[in-house]
DNA sequence: CACAATTACCCACTAATCTCCACAATGATA
DNA sequence: TATCATTGTGGAGATTAGTGGGTAATTGTG
């Protein structure tokens, strides 16, 4: 499972070196590629090992073509899903379309999220973290009973 | 299964080069053709490997001739379904009727959607993606309980 | 049967991508 | 502190994918 966050850089060709620590687990055993796609609501990219992604495809397959919401989600996720295969140096090439979606500049951040990594532009990421912290603090003082009950058994 | 999106161009003869990566899986084993038809609600074309299309035909066969909506759907899909066979360079020729339906200009986009590809005019596609993203963001902040429950087990 | 229009085949050009090698930065070891 | 190993970065060259267009084959029409 993926966790932690890594400051990385994107070279002029749009290539991104993955942390050695996670290279093996990113390549599904079959020697397969990685799947990179866009997030449907945040300006970041999602990076899945092929095996994980295939599970999602199975679920997407079952969404209805007649429900606009499900149709939209399916189109966004699948339509942007790109096979990225790692070169001999452990790098992947991020397609221009995807880079634009996440407003990626030279320095970016790879954020572990269990079954996937998120790829954020470093600056966007910092801003987002600050915002999220602010919201959490506010909610903590406000005290939402329903929410805290749901999060209770996290036993943080 | 088909995924990702590809910026391609339509040449003066109305030909379209398919991505090498998917050429084999587009041709059903029997060396057969591809079936191209129109989408019944969006300005795009649908491109199926023959084998996949035949499954759809089976289902269309079972639609009622007495229900106007089913009748309409059947007529639209079947009536526009065209056999396109790939030439030695991996290109197919899109009939003029279909090109018009999707308002195809020179640059278009091929979008993988599991059992088929969608063919959009590049510009139309961009506009649509932007619109859909906007809707998704709005819904994310609004927080629709019912929807999020249905999409919960996607475990993105 | 001849002609025109369309479609398929072939070759060549260009631009993108992959492979490979080299170097720099970092950290570990003696 | 010097040496070595490992990791991240940059870039040259080879390869391949996508495109354009000439020519031959096929189709349909008068």
Contiguous runs where pLDDT drops below 50 for at least 5 residues of chain A: none
Number of beta-strand segments of chain A: 8
User: Element order, helices and strands of chain A?
Assistant: EEHEEHHEEHEEHH
Could you please say which CATH topology of chain A applies here?
Chemotaxis protein chec
Note the overall shape of chain A.
globular
User: How many domains, in number, for the residues of chain A?
Assistant: 1
Which bin fits the share of residues in helices of chain A? 40-55%
Using the 3D structure, state the CATH architecture of chain A: 3-Layer(aba) Sandwich
Number of helices of chain A: 6
**Structural class by helix and strand composition of chain A:** alpha+beta
Question: Main beta sheet of chain A, described?
Answer: 6 strands, antiparallel
Under CATH at level 1, the class of chain A stands as Alpha Beta
Averaged pLDDT of chain A, please?
Answer: 88
